[in-house]
Specification:
single chain; 221 residues; alpha/beta; 56% helix; globular; binds thymidine-5'-phosphate
Length: 221
């Protein structure tokens, strides 16, 4: 049996990843491919607990190194429990965030630098690289606006539980955004950056184009 495809979605909070994963999954299913969908941090029982710790605004004073190590702890578990078994079984995996997020947020945002993150990736994730990464990069101010609106809604309903990253300052997100662009330039074979203030339909179209151009799935509209 041939190995499955590993596709990751990346972008800032509020870039529309969740919506696009749903659309893409629907599109794939119409073509007979039922993807395994997962996210980071989270997606396993242990990972969900790590996620809670990382995203909870009550986790005050986490050192950047702690944050990065926890992201990789979560990732190691997801690879062992979800991603590798699915790929080995020939399934397509759609993963909401992977190591590019750590490079952008901890490497860029927290200023730990790319080198350290990539070295951790090599040690913890071995040779595992996505076959394709879809990077959603709307203008920074649009992403921030959307992320903060969503965060306020969630906080109103459930308390300020998942807001630790969203409450960061604009300068942090600018560094994340710039690091994402740097990754896209460096790894242009793997990463397709979808930029600009586009509608949900237009982003979906570009994702489908990227998949078909790379013959990830036959384009049969
Ligand atoms: P999300 O699941 O809603 O996208 O939220 C996850 C948050 O965690 C988001 O703010 C980005 C952050 N994050 C990192 O800082 N580093 C990482 O490696 C990952 C996977 C996520």
């Amino acid at each position: 049996m041939s190995r499955g495809l590993f596709i990751t979605l990346e972008g800032l909070d509020g870039s529309g990843k969740t919506t696009q994963i749903k659309r893409l999954s629907g599109w794939m299913q119409k073509r007979g491919v039922v993807p395994v969908i997962t996210r980071q941090p989270g997606g396993t029982a242990a990972g969900d607990r790590i996620r809670e710790l990382l995203l909870d605004s009550r986790s005050v004073g986490l050192a950047p190194m702690t944050e990065m190590a926890l992201m990789f702890g979560d990732r190691a578990q997801a690879i062992a429990e979800v991603i590798e078994p699915a790929l080995a079984a020939g399934d397509t995996v759609l993963c909401d965030r992977f190591t590019d997020s750590t490079e952008a947020y901890q490497g860029g945002g927290r200023e730990l630098g790319s080198e350290l993150v990539l070295e951790m990736h090599r040690l913890i994730c071995g040779g595992l690289q996505p076959d394709l990464t879809l990077l959603l990069l709307p203008p920074l101010d649009k992403s921030l606006e959307r992320a903060r609106r969503r965060n306020d809604r969630v906080a109103e309903k459930n308390g300020p539980n998942e807001g630790r990253f969203e409450s960061e300052q604009d300068a942090f997100f600018r560094r994340v955004w710039e690091k994402y662009r740097e990754i896209a330039r460096r790894d242009s074979e793997r990463v397709v950056a979808i930029e600009g203030d586009l509608s949900i339909d237009d982003v979906h179209e570009q994702i489908v184009e990227a998949l078909s151009e790379r013959r990830v799935i036959a384009h049969s509209r």
